[in-house]
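Bench notes, bay 3.
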Amino acid sequence: MKKSIVPYLVKRFLRFDNEQPFIFLSALLAFLGISLGVMVLLIAMALMNGFDKEFKKKLTIMNYPLTVMPKFYGSVNENLLIDLENKFPQLHFSPYVQSAVMARSGTKLEGGYIFGVDFKSEAKVNSILSEAIQNSDFNKFDILIGKSLKEEFNLFIDDRLMYIFTQVEPGGLSITPKIKRFKVKGVFDSGLSAYDKAYSYTTLSSLQTMLHIPTNQYNGIHIFSKNPEVDIVELKNFLPNSVVIKGWWEDNLNFFAALELEKASLFIVLMLIILIAAINIISSLLMNVMNRRSEIALLLSLGATSSEVKKVFLYLGIVIGISGILVGIILGMSGLWVLSTFDIVHLPKDVYPTSTLPLDLSFKDFILIVVGAFAIVVASSYYPAKKASEIDILTVLRNE
């Protein structure tokens, strides 16, 4: 009998009581609150991870996984490029020359950077550029511009675009900035308007000529790596002291730290939904205890132990909580499938590569949500269960 009394009483106390409907209603509200809380948490964390991953993908493409640059002043030479290609054949390298410029079309001006690159090498480290230069041949002083700059200046293929270089040269009694017109030969679209407006690409020889840089000298080398955090260690050990190497994440530490803080804050705030639902569990169990004082006292007098009484109400709260968590998981996963499959929330295609929401629920976040919700449920069930086990048999039976 003792073995079956706990599950029997749990089933009995979960039933709807016509005399005390508010107890059942309170338990139902707790169940719904936990279900909604878990569902919202799953979808919110998947959204945060999805957007985080999307931003990282964009920044990786336009900032390059790894970049070799001179430590102070000077340049990177062709010998270093050859040594790197021989030492690390699994990586892709693209030398570049860079200059700050002002693009001018009519009365409009736009600041940015122009990169002189070998387009064949650059296509191996930059998938956006690789897609943009398909079936195109770039000659000297041809230029590849971003979609945002093209639309702002209303440019077309083979139009001329003036670039004003920040480097100046003497001219008589004064100094004048270098100015050169480039022919627009192609347009790239990274999905981030800031990069599309600021970055332009021309041939390596074009920019070396404009900046009077020898053909075997560069401002740096872009490197494509599938595991940049690992490869950067090996590259640092190989590179001479005259150059440095940096990863794309080093320029965006504050941005991603802010995203992590936002994600943690959102997790805590949404976990409060489950905490509020847990309060309903406490109130429901306390009402149950108060209304069943005589039954509990009778059970204790017939031989049931305080531990068994405590287990009854502890399991009662856990059953309500776990049921809510399971239903919340089902609703959350269903919601993620619907949002990722159907175009319910439309995203602008000029910002994101897809019109559906980017969703990515990590296993770590899933476990944190489930474990956190379960811990709240257990904690909220413990106090009412403890109060039930402390009922004084003589006092209750004398008064009732």
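Next record in the batch:
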Amino acid sequence: MPSNNIDSSPVGKAANNLLLLIPNLGLGGAQRVFHDHSVELAKTYAVTEAVFNLEGGDLYPSGNPVVSLEVEGGGGVLTKLRNFRRRISGLRRLRERLRPLACVSHLEGADYVNLLSGGPGKTILCVHGSKLHDANIRGPIGWLRKKVLIPTLYNRADRIVTVSRDIIPELITGFGVKPEKLLTINNFFEVAQIEAKSQEPLSEAEAAVYAESPILVTSGRLTQQKNQRPLLAAFAALLRRRPAKLVFIGDGELRDALVTHARELGLRVYAAWETSAPPTVDRDVYFLGLQQNPFKYLRPAAAFVFPSAWEGFPMALGEAMVCGLPVLSADCPTGPREMLAPATATPATPLRHAERGAYGILLPMLTQPSTLVADQAVWTDAMDAVLTDPAVRSRLGELARERMQDFTRERIFNQWLKLFEEVSAG
């Protein structure tokens, strides 16, 4: 059960304690991974979760003890600095009490607190995404993070785990992190569980939509990072060639802007938050919002499209692959190339054509204004080609499912257990 009192957290055998730190337990891919780690590591260690505060609730409860440092966010510069110091001192007290084998932090804000708190236990960071390409790291604070905080503090960590191999060269060349501190442990996927959930039937109305035309599906938050806006124009061009439908699973701050843009393109839109009526077959684009079981919308689709501007090791892409979907993904930093074309290196210049990887299709990023029209045309051609050829779809789906056997829970968590053994011995 959650606890708001640092001193009430359980104390087990110190060598068996692990402390996991994240700013909050709200909605997000990092929070999902944090939950998965907490559940799996609790099979071997006494896991305690720590958060800055519980204002957003606990959307991914693990069943492990949760300790809130009870430090709110927001406020002016002085308030932020004061709260930062309170988080550091609160985590230090918690580390002194638990004396964990290690404190593992997820997300950058938690990393700084972890690094500066000191106290018992090794300090391990889990880096979930690209730092160089994250468009949210901008302005004076972004400059401070990129030029001062990461280069100065990250080398204090005992180990730094990146979820994608391609984050490592960024940290070395872009931020001066020592190579010997770095290793990659990919995210894992509950393959059997995802496959089972994908078999859940659609509602009668949803099934009718899926039967009407080939379905392209994408999932993820409706945010700047996921870059869904330019996908709509590529899809509108596809409709001038052949019938198809585009389904969005997820919600976010850009939902109204995306719906407006789709309608400006002449697309007929269904948005679940605008009506209580079920979807009907006479629409082109379907925004279905957050779904408790997104997998049932993936399995019966014709293909999965993923236009992100940057990633870490994308859960949504991997989940679609588990469901046996052929995938078309932007060759964005980081993750998609590692998943779809693992034997290849990141190109020296951005991809401008469709590349058939070993396990899926890589496409240009839809982020450069000077090449956007041409890049959207590449996406349109690729979507058309995949929808036209059932044999290609079937083969790509088989390859995608095959690839995901490399990221099962058992394979990935053996790597985490080995890491903890190493830091304990060291």
